[in-house]
Amino acid sequence: MNVSFTKKQEEYISKQIESGDFQNASEVVRDALRLHEVYRHRVIQDLKAEIEKGWNDVESSRSVKDIIQAKKNTISNV
User: Which residues are in coiled coils (predicted)?
Assistant: First the structure.
């Protein structure tokens, strides 16, 4: 499998290897993919929980736009 990286990504990978935390680029990429999987799972679970709360709640003062914006703010803070 071939993967292309931007110059910035290549520099980041190199810095991670230089730090001694990783031995090679493959380790950095595998770690990033593991973190992405955990992050994605968390976002999906959070969204499902919010949907469930919405279905079970009689009345909410938040609009759909408010909920989406709150989720975007949470994601940008991670």
Answer: none
**Residue 59 to residue 18: CA distance in whole angstroms:** 54
For the chain, give the percent of residues with pLDDT over 70.
97
Q: Which phi and psi (to 5°) does residue 63 adopt?
A: -85, 170
Cβ atoms of 46 and 71 within 8 Å: the answer is yes
Q: In sequence order, what are the residues at sequence separation of 6 or more whose Cβ sits closer than 8 angstroms to the Cβ of residue 3?
A: 29
* Residue pair 72/66 in contact by the 8 Å Cβ criterion: no
Report, as an integer, the average pLDDT of 23-48: 96
Which helix or strand (DSSP H or E) is residue 14 part of? helix 7-18
Average pLDDT in the 4-13 region? 97
What does pLDDT average to over the chain? 90
Place of tokens 């595998």: 30
